[in-house]
Structure prediction request, 229 residues.
Amino acid sequence: MNIKLMESNTWQHESTIEIKEIIDNDNFPCIFGKKASRNNTIQWLLCESSDNQKNFFLKGVIDYTNFIKAILPEERLLYPLIAVIQSNAKSLKEEHEIAWEFIQYLIDNEPKQWLLDVPQDPNNYEWCLCFNEVQLFINISSSKHLKYKNRNLGKDICLVINPRQIFDVVAPLNKAKGIKIRQKIRERVEAYNGFPAPKELGFLVIKIIWSGNSINFVSKAVWKIQNVL
Prediction:
């Protein structure tokens, strides 16, 4: 959805304008997000934090992943999805709980079979979240991230969703160019936040807890951040 097509004076319009202003700041660390913002290729999904919005969120992520599958891998970097969840949460813990509820809803309503080339065992280092036949990388941004400003995109909760494999294309860990790009982003994060970046930045560090047929996610990096706020 293009933000120019949204009605003004709505929470959706105000939130997307706020997010773009943050991303467009010269010092914002994510160089790929800044380029997508300049090109006006960010995909938007705007949800209220209510149970009846979870199905809207699910359909939106299905539409997004269908779109991603239809374009070339090297083009996918410029089409991140920012799912904005309207929030009146009073704490970081509450914001994270809302965000994980939405993510869990995706997992519980997976429309396709798990990808054959991705391990289903979450303890396997090659495991990652799959949805609608796409490997996904999701980070949570929220207003209560007061110290880690790079995880604060304004007053509402944001799930920033990218196809995970784009990072293998633009910043492969087995090539000097990829290491250089990751290091550049680390340096920008450190400058933006004003202190050293977590050692996990640039690497997938996730603790997975199985619960029946579903998966509950707790990001080690996220909880470390919460503990130092």
Remarks:
- The first helix runs from residue 11 to 23.
- The chain is about 40% helix and 20% strand.
- The longest strand covers residues 134-141.
- Helices lie at 11-23, 31-38, 51-69, 92-108, 166-170, 176-193, 220-228.
